[in-house]
Design brief:
Helices cover 41% and strands 20% of the residues. By secondary structure, the protein is α/β, with parallel strands linked by helices.
Length: 274
């Protein structure tokens, strides 16, 4: 594996080989590594980016607390089969304060967009820069961030990036908790509270498999489980899988998303239904 810190160096290492990009903010876990498995299936040249993007944090304290360990991440990336690890500085990504931001209207307005001002503008902007600077043929994103996946797909289509966006299933710990870099901040008691998110989603998914199609009923199962566990619910929303538009009935591919705070830790999760 080669570690580089400039766009030019990434392009020099990938050359004319169609590459697959795995964008991350580091502090890798099994969820990230599962994306690498998908990437190696579609390309012989896999690039992982590792950059904690300040544009997508609406709280400065959250940015400061985000865990970082480049040496650990590099070892995991190499063992997973990454060919090129792109670990740029903030100066490489944003040589000057960017006057241009990418906004994906509609898709980014609800759920996370409503609770995290400017978050998806930051995501879309940094992903657009990665696509333009690295020029991958494929890009792999986790379905755990279902709305983010919808935003990136729409952005890539609208801006005619010649990249295929691939969504990879959510990876969970043995107790059902969705893998997240934020899980390291959960104490033992907090963790049991956090399981209300996945527990509610699993109950809703089971109800959907049994024939329940009413969005309000499915959302209610999630809300009840989260609040019963003691978490502070922000939303439980059924949405179209491709537009992220809230809908009232399971009549197409949809995802049921939840966000809640467990103490000082904000968690998100979802299940895909249909």
């Amino acid at each position: 594996m080669i570690v580089v810190d400039t766009f030019a160096a990434v392009r020099a290492e990938t050359g004319s080989v169609p590459s697959a990009l795995v964008p991350t903010m580091g502090f890798l876990h099994e969820g990230h590594l599962s994306l690498v498995e998908v990437a190696t299936e579609v390309s012989d040249r896999v690039v992982m980016s590792l950059f904690v993007n300040p544009l997508q944090f609406d709280e400065a304290g959250d940015l400061d607390r985000y865990p970082r360990d480049l040496e650990r991440d590099a070892a995991l990336a190499e063992s997973a089969g990454i060919d090129v690890l792109f670990a740029p500085s903030a100066e490489e990504m944003y040589p000057i304060d960017p006057a241009t931001r990418v906004t994906v209207a509609g898709v980014s307005s609800g759920m996370e967009g409503a609770h995290r001002s400017g978050h998806f503008d930051g995501v879309a902007t940094v992903v657009a820069k990665l696509f333009a600077g690295i020029r991958p043929a494929f890009a792999i994103f986790g379905r755990k961030d279902a709305q983010q996946l919808a935003v990136v797909r729409r952005m890539a289509r609208d801006l005619s990036f010649p990249v295929e966006i691939i969504g990879s299933p959510t990876v969970r710990e043995t107790d059902g908790l969705a893998l997240s870099s934020r899980n390291v901040f959960l104490g033992e008691e907090d963790r049991s509270v956090a399981l209300g998110l996945s527990g509610g989603l699993f109950a809703a998914a089971e109800a959907a498999r049994g024939g329940e199609r009413d969005g309000a009923a499915l959302e209610g199962l999630v809300r009840d489980a989260v609040t019963a566990a003691g978490a502070d619910l922000e939303y439980a929303t059924l949405a179209d899988a491709f537009t992220a538009e809230p809908i009232g009935t399971v009549d197409r591919e949809v995802f049921l998303a939840v966000a809640a705070r467990v103490g000082a830790v904000r968690l998100i999760d979802n299940v895909v239904l249909w």
